[in-house]
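If you are new to this repository, start here. Below is one unmodified record pulled from the training split, so you can see the exact layout before writing a loader.
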Amino acid sequence: MVFFRSVSLLSRLRSRASNLSNSVRWLQMQSSSDLDLQSQLKELIPEQQERLKKIKTEYGKVQLGNITVDMVLGGMRGMTGLLWETSLLDPDEGIRFRGLSIPECQKLLPGAKPGGEPLPEGLLWLLLTGKVPSKEQVNALSKELHDRATVPDYVYRAIDALPVTAHPMTQFASGVMALQVQSEFQKAYEKGIPKAKYWEPTYEDSLNLIARVPIVASYVYRRIYKDGKIIPLDDSLDYGGNFSRMLGFDSPQMQELMRLYVTIHSDHEGGNVSAHTGHLVASSLSDPYLSFAAALNGLAGPLHGLANQEVLLWIKSVVEECGENLTTEQLKDYVWKTLNSGKVVPGFGHGVLRRTDPRYTCQREFALKHLPNDPLFQLVSKLYEVVPPILTELGKVKNPWPNVDAHSGVLLNYYGLTEARYFTVLFGVSRSIGICSQLIWDRALGLPLERPKSVTTAWLENYCKKASS
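And here is the target side for that same chain:
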């Protein structure tokens, strides 16, 4: 009897040990799943697919507004015509990332240290899942991006084939195009991947692209301005800190600025030129590299991303002509001089916003904290007081308030990144996070080829004549 009791006891102990081992393995798997971004998406995508299907079935005929001739002739402003999940721009409140304002993101998203600026990896997680990540999830994503951050030699050779005098955006876009050789989506499509799985190789391309663009961008900067002396990626640093370091700036404050910069520039809903271009090109099933390269070419325009370059150059022209200690009256005269010459005051106004850009405000708060006595920052503060009343007096501007570009150049200049021609490349690195996040959802939701209807001037004239009669 003792023998059989011992065997029975041993059997129960083994069973409990086996159950305990299984529980531990389950917890490890659960923990691994929680920390893996792609696993999170695999849970979320079916829910969103059903949600979109229901909206289309039940509300497909609901009208969202009326299109006017002014809208057709005015660059489609005011038309509601795109689905963009990752962010929404309110004319009064400014941008919201998955429902969170910039101050809320600064408060809720993990930083490199408590109370620090939000880590771009955290925003990427938020844009893709709609959930605020934990510090552990952000750290896991940061490590994954490190593992993906390998750039083939032929990418550097493609950039080196251009003259060093080529605009930084030209060199950057060329590098992104060269990365396309490794597109997982293109390979999968050629093999015949089912449409329902399009998002999976798109995810691989997008995460690879986001991981690699800071390396390509910093290579362009070092090639043009630092005699080609390259600084390698540091596995101990996060996305923004690493980008700052690879550019050549090790200051903790500059690294914090880069975290803030990449976060707030990442996305601005879908109607702006770069976001819309990326979405449009991707709707033809071009891979993320081709789509993002196209977006960069739109970002390079003076009416879009190139504006941050023009702001700093204009501010420096004010100082050159009037000196650093100029009076308010001198500044007013220079603003009027700029406007009377047929030019705009760069950094003021916005196609959608009707108040001060929250992205401007958070950069101003950063400056007040870290560089309150910088002469160029003080000039920017003066412009905030001087320019809006003048633009209001003109009566032609719907939004006389400063936008994001009015401030970013002065901050970068203070920490030593003085080359204004390069600023738009920084913007491009940031925008990869927003554009690629939305592109993954475009593929997951099966959004169609974008093909709006166009008309001729004669068609408009005839239509309006018939309507008026």
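Two things worth knowing about this chain: The two ends are 107 Å apart (CA to CA). Confidence is low (pLDDT under 50) at residues 1-7, 22-30.
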